[in-house]
Amino acid sequence: MTTATLPWFARHEARLAWREWLWWLNGKRHGLVRTLVIAAFALAGLHLIAGLTVRPLLAMGPDPDRESLLLLTAGIAMSWMLMLSQAMESVTRVLYARGDIELILSSPSSARSVFVLRLLGIAAGSTLMALVLIGPFVNMLAFGGGLRWLAGYGMLIAMGCSAAGLAITGTLVLFRLIGARRTRLAAQVIAAIVGGAIVIGLQVAAIMGHQGLERFAVLRTDAALAMAPALDSLAWWPARASTGSIEPLVALLAGAALLLAAAIAWASRQLAGHVIMTAGQTARSSQTQTKLARFQALSAVGALRAKELTLLARDPWLMSQTLMQVLYLIPPALLLWQGFGEGTDPAPLIVPVLVMAAGQLAGGLAWLAISGEDAPDLIATAPIAPRTVMRAKIEAVLIAVAMPMAPLLAATALLSPFAAVMGAVGVLASAGAATAIQLFFRTTARRSAFRRRQTASRVATFSEAFSSIAWAAAAALAASGHVLAVIPAGIALIVLGIARALAPSRG
């Protein structure tokens, strides 16, 4: 038996990445034709959205003004922070979620070379994701504004390399500062905050400037333009590089490549020791928790409910998925606070956001509680009725959804009690519908598959989205006192009925 060579490991990593993309697109490890069809439709949709979005930038000439540079820079910064968030999550998965690290460390192959390949894979994955998702915007800019916009692809590569380099460095710094056990959760939380920071920040600034929830409105104000740097500032290099300026583009590409190379060179020497620390910390943590465990006198439903709430609170992978939805409640909360001082009624804006967030949050939590059960056989053989088990799971999901929603609904009640009641009804209806859809399409899966839950059933995914949108529209109209709220509410019930009819039979 011969030692695996570096090219072999490279092919192995490429296969794993390809399977991950297949899972992400269609929920299967195989099926090239189906994947290509789905990808073609997705790219067509992205190009359509891009064509409608980039219109304000098409008028930019080779020497753009400060407002155009500010808008383009904000879009680049938003995309880069999303790439950084994704890269941090990928680094965390390399450290914690891959089950073959110990095998690599014990093999006669060079562990550092393998780690270099995996870290390069993180950079390649971040860059490829950016090219796929943001590339259509570059294409439409080049189609409507000239070929000079194709330099945006070079900018995307620089963004991917720099995001990966910073994510690698930042995660390992966290490892040294707070230890192996806490880094897993901290990295997921930071990734979620980074991913939504600039979007939420722009919305907060727009609210404070009385522009509503339009995130780019604040960038067009005289105050923002007055604080913007001079036209010859280095701060505009990313925007100028995206519009075809060669010097900024070359400089940014070189800087991003150096940052990535330095991060990989440093991390590849440290990664083996960090993985060993991770395994040791996990083992000690499990032993400590076993010693400190205490039994409490609870009913069967209470014990199951407590178990589900504990699992939801401990799941670090859940943090990056659900914390983002909670963070997006900050702008409506600020709008509420602003409404107290001015005596206005922001309910028509706040209520649908709350209802939509409740539906999306409930869908993710319900999947974890219902389908992502890691011990289904143990639960199935327990001396308790299946109906009781399901009741406890549903109660845990609704409690977890109510915790972030209750304070905002209470604040809404101080401004408009009627709107708060309609919002509470909408939140309950949206969360209940999302939970019911997950019940209709429940499967047996592990909690670690949460990132790919949307590929399990396309019908469930779209039904959940349409249901949340319909309930949000119904709650908004009801909070405004319109009887037309019955129309979107009826549509939501129809969506739920269609989902039930299309769900697999459980005979």
UniProtKB/TrEMBL annotation:
Entry annotated with the keyword rRNA processing: no
Descriptive protein name: Permease
Signal peptide annotation: none
PROSITE patterns to which the protein is assigned, alphabetical: IQ
Keyword match Membrane: yes
Transmembrane region(s): 32-57, 69-88, 115-138, 150-179, 185-205, 249-267, 317-337, 349-370, 396-415, 421-441, 462-479, 485-503
Record key words, sorted: Membrane, Transmembrane, Transmembrane helix
Organism whose genome encodes this protein: Phreatobacter aquaticus
